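yo, AAA family ATPase is done. seq:
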Amino acid sequence: MSDLGDFGDFDADAGSEDGASADATDSSPSSSGPTGPASTRSTTEGGTDEFETTTVEPSGEDVGIGTICVSQGLRVAEDGDDTTLRAYVTRGNRSSIRIGSYLLAPYPDGETLFCRIVGLEYAQQYHADDATEIHARRAMRTDEIDESDYKFVAELEPVAVLYDDDGELKRRMTDRVPKPQTVIRQADDTEEIKTGLKMPDDGVFLGHLSVGGEKVRTAATPPTIDYRLKDDYDAGDPLVFRHSLIAGGTGSGKTHGAKNILRQYLADDRTYPMDDGREVSPAVVQFDPQDEYAQMHDDNPDLDGEFARRLEREGIAYGGHEDTTAFIPKVGSASYAAGHHRAEQIEFTIPFSMVHDNPWLVAGSGLNDNQYGALTTVLLPRFRKQYGSGGTYEEFTTFLDDPALREELDESGRVHEATFDAVRRRVLGFDHVFDQDARPITDLVHDFVRPGGLTVVPTYHINDSRATEAIVLAVSSLVIDQKLSNDPEYDRIKETPLVLGMDEAHNFLTDADSVQAGKVITKFTEAAKQGRKERLGLFLITQDPQDIHDAVFKQINTTVVLNLGDEDAIKSVNIPSNLESKVPYMEKGQMVVYSPDNSEPVELIGLPTCLTRHGRD
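structure:
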């Protein structure tokens, strides 16, 4: 047993006045044990001993931001819920760490685990209760927070393992657990991040990779990481022909973003191979209920030279697209004003002859199956036989006003008189839509669909929603029918890659209980399913994605989600839950991209400046 010596007779008051403490100063080295090697003693001018602290920091320079820790387990499993992967973050790095940040943990053999921060936690270094009055008041009287008593731990989600394959960096699913005390570092290399997230190097530019609303920075030039959609046949079909959806609330920047994306499809060097071996630039047809897309003809005066040079360095197409034409539907006495753009304008009308192939254009929302059958199998064929394929809408209404026809069909049992009357009521009211004083759209197909050209169909000047629906559906059906036909009447449509854009798509592709809605949904579903083969891409824009019919929604491969405040709308876009929670808080221009065939789900920031003219003066 150790000899405690004088400690057994220690008097706390002894030597306080007469210098008896000199015994302690002159004591043997063995009595200095409590100070240890981390401190020394010195005597102040007043004769009082004080301990001088010395550094306990390890020598050398820190590399990384922390290390993999095993205090609560270290496990990688096929089921993400069974994975336990945590890292201790050192004090100097804690302020820069964010949920969603990407980290790298190397394996000893040169492979690397690419992971993402999914949780951050402070834990007490020592067992102590800091929920006390003295702790709180002490903290309230200091200017800074002392983190020395706390551990800062990041919970990590493995994304992929990066490995070298003959000089090329590749990824595979996570199948290894990192070693304990592995040093982790933030991912700051463009190639590592793009490979880890399965992002392509080339394609259609959407925005820059971000975390928590801040762009991810690298050591490269430029320091940002561009996000692009695959646009060639080397790795499958271009994603433009596998359909896109942009969802965002009012003021979220969805039109700004949609213009920037469409501008990339209209780049001079963008072409797609056709079956006959030709390389053809795509045509874009955009239905525009707010009259905003014809402005893409003009340059944006706010786009300065410095920003333009940056766009050129990143290979982003910008500037007004000269081959932009506004096709103005002629509806009654409605007039179109175009002081906000300089695009060419061409008026057109919908000929009633199109109804023979698409009878639901005049079916209205009230026709039941029996009434629709009477219209398509009896009345329209009888009218065509009597007036020819060029019969007008006015002639059709006159045809239905004939009481002798009504009586004849009723007596023959072909169409009951009540059914006849119901059909007649439903098809009235389109006299300002069909056969107006303008060229029929069927005579303008060659100008309407132009390789490398942007066609905008504005409907803002039309006050009748029923007329708007009829025009948009008539023109889109013409395009889709010709694209899907094995014996097309208009080869121009069949032989041109086509992007069919529709703003406020929820108004036309909604899940409604009517014959008309059912026919429209069927047509667009077929277009979506066969789009890859026929080089037809749907580009839908909406603020109410929950209203788009599920049959169409299921065919969408790329979903771009901006700020949405409605819970049902957020749920309907089917993005991962960790990104779903961010959607209501995203600022203008922030977006989530969910495109399983292109990359892992990611957060982006779009360009702050529109690449073409945008907004009214």
